[in-house]
Amino acid sequence: MKRQTRKDLKTDAFAQELGQTVDFLSHHKAESARYAAIGLAVLVIVGGTYFYMRHQTTVRQDALAEAMKLNNAVVSPTPQPPNMNFPTQVELDRAWTKAFTDVATNYHGHEEGAIAQIYLAAKQSDKGNFAEAEKMYKDVMDSAPTEYSGWARISLAQVYASEGKMQEARALLEYLIAHPTQTISKEQATLELAGILAKSNPADARKLVEPLRTSRTAVSRAAIDMAGRLPQN
Fold first, then answer.
1. Tell me: the pLDDT tens digits for 51-108?
2. Strands (E), the chain
3. What pLDDT shows up at residue 176?
4. Is pLDDT of 48 > 90?
5. Helix H or strand E encompassing 214
6. Per-domain residue ranges for the chain?
7. Nearest-CA neighbor of 195 among 158, 150, 152?
8. pLDDT confidence of residue 231
9. Taking 70 as the threshold, does the pLDDT of residue 22 lie above it?
10. Contact at 8 Å (CB) between 26 and 18?
11. pTM of the prediction?
């Protein structure tokens, strides 16, 4: 009953405003014609821009979704629905690289392009092509929305650590600790740094982990687990 009453009140208010508008227009026909034309032009521009942006967002999301399907593709001489199928690993790798490269290139600076580029960089890192991975991660850090530049920063720190560039890795994560994002908290960045330092500098890793053990959250459980795996000396 209350919901219906609120609806009626809104309808009455709308009808009243509409009646006032019609009355005004009936006495100001010349002015209303001009303002109507201006208003229509503004609506066309604003509405067109809104729907174009919505359309472009959908296009970007669809392109990334199509590329992501290749992560579950199957290499087999016979089709295996619903997964995509390729007769050889070479053909799958070629299709995967092209799909993610197209998304990264066409939507550079957008979140979909950043995600695609992070995937490509990870692939290069897995192959041992660290220089290429570094270049890609740095580009995401410079061009992508903050949330994704943060993930690229963590990934680049891991690449540096793999190369033994501990100072560079540490600097990246210390920056993220000081400048957390909506998707990467200060505590998460701290745990990442502790994990990287675990072998080369367990004392510093322990100093980072200890304050996180008492928060009674998922972070504290991760900190306790990491502390248990650190060397005692």
1. 445 556 788 989 999 999 999 999 998 887 888 999 999 999 999 999 999 999 999 9
2. 74-75, 85-86
3. 94
4. no
5. none
6. 93-179, 185-233
7. 158
8. 73
9. no
10. no
11. 0.68
Q: Phi and psi (nearest 5°) for 74?
A: -115, 140
Instruction: Please report the beta strands in 179-221, taking only residues with DSSP state E, as ranges in sequence order.
Output: none
> Which residue's entry shows tokens 């990334």?
64
Distance CA 100, CA 34 (A): 50
Rounded to whole angstroms, the Cα distance separating 169 from 158 reads 7
Write the DSSP assignment of 127-183 as a string of letters: TT-HHHHHHHHHHHHHHS-HHHHHHHHHHHHHHHHHTT-HHHHHHHHHHHHHS--SS
Is beta strand 74-75 parallel, antiparallel or unpaired with respect to 85-86?
Answer: parallel
Residue 84 and residue 102: Cα distance in Å, rounded?
A: 18
Encoded tokens for 1: 């009953």
Q: Give 25's pLDDT tier (boundaries 50, 70, 90).
A: very low
Q: What is the pLDDT of residue 199?
A: 85
CATH architecture of 93-179: Alpha Horseshoe (1.25)
The Cα 102–Cα 66 span in angstroms is 11
Q: Is the pLDDT of residue 38 over 80?
A: no
Q: What is the DSSP string of 103-129?
A: HHHHTTTSHHHHHHHHHHHHHHHHTT-
Residue type, 97: T
Those residues with Cβ within 8 angstroms of residue 152's Cβ, 6 or more apart along the chain or in another chain: 114, 117, 118, 121, 137, 138, 140, 141, 144
For residues 163 and 155, the answer to whether their CB atoms sit within 8 Å is no
SS3 assignment, position 74: strand
Q: Is 65 exposed, middle or buried (0-12, 13-18, 19+ CB in 10 A)?
A: exposed
Do 45 and 56 touch, CB atoms closer than 8 A? no
